[in-house]
Every structure is written in C-alpha cells, then in structure tokens.
Amino acid sequence: MAVKILIHACCAPCLIHPYDLFTGRGYEVVPYFYNPNIHPFREYRERYFAALDYASEKGIKLRAGPYEMERFLAEAPSPAGERCEVCYRMRLGRSAAEARALGIARFTTTLLVSPYQDQEKIGRAGRAAAAQHGVEFIFEDMSSGYRESVRISREAGMYRQKYCGCVYSEKERFQKSDPPGEI
Ligand code: SF4
C-alpha cells in the first residue's frame, strides 16, 4: 500500500505539479483545501470547486476544512509581510492537525509552487506546525513546476484566480488610484 502524503491545496492550478510529483514518487496524495484567507466567499467557492473538479478528475477525494473567514480577519494584521506569515501559519497549522488526525505522517503545501509566495516564511510556518502536531513537513521548492501548471490549467479551462486571496491582496492587485479609476 502506498504511503500517504497530505497536500495542503491553495487552488487547483497549483495542485497540478505537486500531485504529479508526489504520485510519481509513489505516494498516495490526499489533497486538503483549507483557505480562510480567500475573500470574498464567491471567490473562495470558485477556487474550491475548481480543486474539487481536479480531484475528481484524478479519482481522489478532496478533503476540506471550514471557511473560517472571521478567524483570518481577526488574526491576520494588515501589513503584507506579517500578514502572509500569519496566513501561512494558519493554513499549515490546520493542515498539520488534519494530517495527524488522519494518521498521515507527512504533509506539504501547494504554496511552494508559486513564485509569488515567500518560501522562507512557508518553510518556517510548516516546520512549526509539524513540530506542534507531531508530523513531518516536506519542504521543497516546487516553483520549477509553476509555468507548466499555468499552461496545463489554461489549456484545461481551469478557473485561475487574479489575486492571491485576501481582501488586502485584492486591493493591492486592482486599486490603481484613490478614488478608483479603470481596472
Ligand atoms: S497576500 Fe496571500 S499569502 Fe498574504 S495574507 Fe493575503 S492571501 Fe495570505
């Protein structure tokens, strides 16, 4: 029987490369969608259903945590550097707890695929979560698979988000002036 690995999934496009990588290494991948950072709810829903479609296409079950938007807004501060670290800790903490509850010894995250995320902070958050819950965090820079994931997801007509996730990142992505002009 294959050894399992839980992969925290931030979205469907970023799940493509880690899924292929770890199944190629003989693992049974268990994707876990826990992203209370994604706002608004309709955006969260789009990303969730895209991940669900991808998982069912692969014949695997997508596990999902609750949509704790209020928790994110209460705990994540506004400045981007600190906020992202809190965001990583929140998502990886819950993923580590889920892996532990399922009896899965290892976990990693699709956040390590995106060249726009902070690998060092993700590594720190993942290791802290692993130590807290008694599992192992697999840290691996998977950003070499990013371009190919973009290509595959575009060709497949998969939903692709236009901003990182939180309301702050939505504002940073789209607001060009105050008062607002064209997007
Ligand atoms: S910018 Fe992205 S990583 Fe940073 S807090 Fe917002 S959703 Fe999380």
Structural notes for this entry:
With 183 residues, the protein is of the alpha/beta class. The protein has one domain: 3-Layer(aba) Sandwich (Rossmann fold). Helices cover 51% and strands 10% of the residues. It has helices at 12-24, 41-58, 69-75, 80-102, 119-133, 146-155, 167-174, and strands at 4-8, 28-33, 63-64, 106-109, 136-137. It has a five-stranded parallel β-sheet, sandwiched between helices. Strand 1, helix 1 and strand 2 form a beta-alpha-beta unit. Helix 1 (12-24) runs parallel beside helix 2 and helix 4 packs parallel to helix 5. The protein starts with a strand and ends in a 9-residue tail after the last helix. The relative contact order is 0.19. The mean pLDDT is 96. It binds iron/sulfur cluster (SF4). Iron/sulfur cluster is lined by residues 37, 76, 83-84, 87, 164-166, 168-169.
Number of domains: 1
List how many beta strands DSSP finds: 5
Main-sheet strand order equals 3-2-1-4-5
Q: What's the helical proportion of residues?
A: 40-55%
Q: What is the CA–CA distance across the termini?
A: 51 Å
Please give the CATH architecture. Answer: 3-Layer(aba) Sandwich
Cα radius of gyration in angstroms = 16 Å
Averaging pLDDT over every residue, what do you get? 96
CATH topology heading: Rossmann fold
In short:
By secondary structure, the chain is an alpha/beta fold. The protein has seven helices and five strands, in the order E-H-E-H-E-H-H-E-H-E-H-H. The longest helix is centred in the middle third of the chain and has 23 residues, at 80-102.
